[in-house]
Amino acid sequence: METRTLILSKTLSCLFCVFYFVASVSATLSFNFYAASCPTAEFLIRNTVTSSSSNDPSIPGKLLRLVFHDCFVEGCDASLMLQGNNTEQTDPGNRSVGGYSVIESAKRVLELFCPGTVSCADIIALAARDAVEIAGGPVIPIPTGRRDGMVSVASNVRPNIVDTSFTMDEMVKIFSAKGLSLLDLVVLSGAHTVGAAHCNTFRDRFQQDSMGKLIDKTIDSSYANELMKQCPSGDMASVTVNIDPETSMVFDNQYYKNLLVHKGLFQSDSVLLNDDSTRKFVEDFANDQELFFESWGQSFMKLTSVGVKTGDEGEIRRICAATNA
């Protein structure tokens, strides 16, 4: 009870911080930004995400990963959507990112109804928001008014994204640089409650020593054995497994329950339970889905406000894969 009270207190205080944070980003980033210029914008984006998810249940997880990888490099400006030599998409850390076609589909529809009005950056943020709701998560209002960036360089990717093998200190350093707190780190890691991962991104988790014992003692042995069965040694780059082995298509708090029984797929997941500074957050979110959902809304709002371009910055692209120039 004491821990829950502490988190609730932090959550409520963070709520004020979130709205202050968003307001301080720019006066032009606001709720209902398209109310006059394109009143059906959010409806059209939601329809596209819903339709795409119906055809491919993996879409919500892909869109969540897409928004993370976009916002952490150059800010939430759709720089990840730009195609070409040496762009962010060409970095090995982004080659398995998906969901681009959903964003482009929504953009094509919006260009028919409201040409030159809705940015690809806003589409990414809104599509990820809708993906969470479609997968069973909370309904989240987020401000809009982002503009699209014009710079996308592969060398900017690695210094700014979290690798699955990162330690707590390494993750905190990157999150802090984006204006995101330790609590945001734990909450946003909950995105791993949906989606899949390639075997080569976590192969170290089930390696054995010469005696046949797991080298990584922080992962449940039966879970490691199951991963070994799912990941053929010669084909790890193409085979995927569900990040959440229990409810992989549902946005819920199962991710945190998995951590408590040492079934976090990545090292970057397991450290949340093993570190004294984050263990209590994990335990409370595992025991209270409503608390996780409330916290998710606040942290997601902060995530999608990182480094936004507004006003006269950037542009509104005609297509998301290329700048207008």
UniProtKB/TrEMBL annotation:
CDD domains: secretory_peroxidase. Binds 1 heme b (iron(II)-protoporphyrin IX) group per subunit. One of its GO terms (molecular function) is heme binding. Residues 28-324 form the Plant heme peroxidase family profile domain. The record marks 65 as: Transition state stabilizer. GO terms for biological process: hydrogen peroxide catabolic process; response to oxidative stress. It is found in: Secreted. Ca(2+) 2 binds at residues 193, 244, 247, 252. One of its GO terms (cellular component) is extracellular region. The chain crosses the membrane at residues 12-35. Its EC number is 1.11.1.7. Heme b binds at residue 192. This is Peroxidase. The lineage of its organism: Eukaryota, Viridiplantae, Streptophyta, Embryophyta, Tracheophyta.
